[in-house]
Specification:
385 residues; Glucose Oxidase, domain 1; Rossmann fold; 2 domains; 11-stranded mixed sheet; 7-stranded mixed barrel; 23% helix; globular; arginine biosynthesis
Length: 385
Amino acid sequence: MTLFRTGPAALVLEDGTRFTGRAYGATGTTLGEVVFATGMTGYQETLTDPSYAGQIVLQTAPHIGNTGMNAEDPESRRIWVAGYIVRDPSRVVSNWRADESLDEALEADGIVGISGIDTRAVTRHIRSAGSMRGGIFSGDAASLDPDEQLRIVREAPEMTGRNLSGEVSVTEVQVTPATGERIGNLAVLDLGVKQATILNLAERGFDVHVLPQSATIEDIRAIEPVAVFYSNGPGDPAASEGHVDLLRSVLDDRLPFFGICFGNQLLGRALGYGTYKLPFGHRGINQPVLDRETGRVEITAHNHGFAVDAPIDETSDSPHGYGRVEVSHVGLNDNVVEGLRALDIPAFSVQYHPEAAAGPHDANYLFDRFAQLVRDDLSKKAPNA
């Protein structure tokens, strides 16, 4: 079956908006939050990013699939998106590294997609109305009555209030030895961690212990870590209070902490700030962020639909008693909090993805900043310090 002989498919949004196209990848029904990603490259890294669990991802770039899929670039063990929307699938794969085509990979992992629709129209609609639940219907499901399809979409769970960490996390501890000059054991709470993150941490000298999201403070202390790291991941941070409580125990132990994306939101809540849902979120590899310490503008990779509610223009006191906190990074498109730094304890976080396997690499220095923070902390704790 070729891309130009696939059966009909429909994308149905919860407000009743409907788009018809052709089936792409697996056929059937899939439901999720419809979001758009603005990267022109790196679709394999996007698809295999666990942060996208529960989301139907639309690529704003019109031509997708040119370079196929390979065994070297996945960010995790499978494709995680709930569904996939593209305008013009590539007719051929034209890269020497490719092992299979994109549609073959989608079909193998059971990912229902749709092609041949006006993705710009969908994007503009979401930008105006906000991210919303949607469904892709293909195969036998494409012939369902449109009212029935809409009913199915409206009965799907909303992203707000969902805890998805358990669906994407490892179930057993996995260890990646340090490849740089060794600093010590690092406890990584897997909320949807990406392989590039693990490799970056190992290169900085950490023996990376990836722990299941169900880990306790006793599990963390058992590996005698020099620091703790919270990964990116899907879901609503307000639905992850167990991970917030665990992080407060980490902060109480005065262990250095670094969090990215979901980890940034959880640090915000651990410090005592709130979180809220963005209208349509930040997704893609071209988001401008200001580092307020250096004044440098970084082009960064994002995938988040929630943000921290903290004072941007002034240093504030942690409502939970962890001292002074400043917003270290700010998104230049909408003034959203993109990073936090605690001034009285060794903890900081950013909302974006400094590992950015598909690029850009402007923010990769944050791994060096974390390694130096841990070295400084160890130096202070040394007997002769």
